[in-house]
Structure formats: C-alpha cells, structure tokens
Design goal:
Distance between the termini: 40 Å
Number of domains: 1
Number of helices: 6
Shape: elongated
Order of helices and strands: HHHHHH
Low-confidence stretches: 100-104
Length: about 100
C-alpha cells in the first residue's frame, strides 16, 4: 500500500510510523531469539539497510519511491533465501542455519 501510494503521489499520512513499528517489532523478535549475534548475520544487515533506506526516503522525499523499491527487493531476496545465506556471517562464526552440518 505504501509503495502504491508513493508511486501515484498519494498522501498516506503517518504510514512511516507503521513501517518503523512493524520493522522494529520484527527486529526485536530476532534480537530476542539470536541476541546481539543477529548483527553479524546477513538478515540483520539487510534489516539495517532497509531501515537506512527508509530514513533516506524520509529525508529526501524525491528518493522515497526508489528507496521503497529497494526495500521490497532486499526483503524479498533475503527472506526467501536459504538459511545458509540469511544467516551467513561475514565476520565471526556463522549463524544457526548457516551450516548444513550444524543444522543437523
């Protein structure tokens, strides 16, 4: 809905509040599950990137539509990726789904 409203110049009011609250709730749930290790996983990096894009779009309204599209694409790619990709850790040990042997 937000993407459609933005694409057609609609005014959605305080829609960004719902994006921040729903995203914050998901991040809080993941932090409870994985602790601070969540920041090492690719899924954590993706969430931080999406939040950063939202902030850029809010600060520069002309970039809101491209930022929202980038958020949708990042979210779709990461959320549908295998656990070995979602929980890949560029630094430190891999996440709980990052290694098939570890998941067994």
């Amino acid at each position: 809905m937000v993407l459609g409203a933005t694409a057609f110049g609609g005014e959605a009011g305080l829609w960004w509040t719902w994006l921040v609250l729903s995203g914050g709730g998901i991040i809080a749930s993941d932090l409870e599950k994985y602790g601070l290790n969540w920041f090492r996983y690719l899924c954590g990096w993706a969430a931080i990137a999406k939040f950063s894009l939202l902030v850029v779009g809010l600060l520069v309204p002309g970039l809101m539509l491209p930022c929202l599209w980038a958020c949708v694409i990042i979210g779709a790619v990461i959320s549908h990726a295998p656990g070995s990709i979602r929980h890949a850790a560029p630094f430190g040990t891999i996440g709980p789904c990052g290694d098939e042997d570890e998941a067994k």
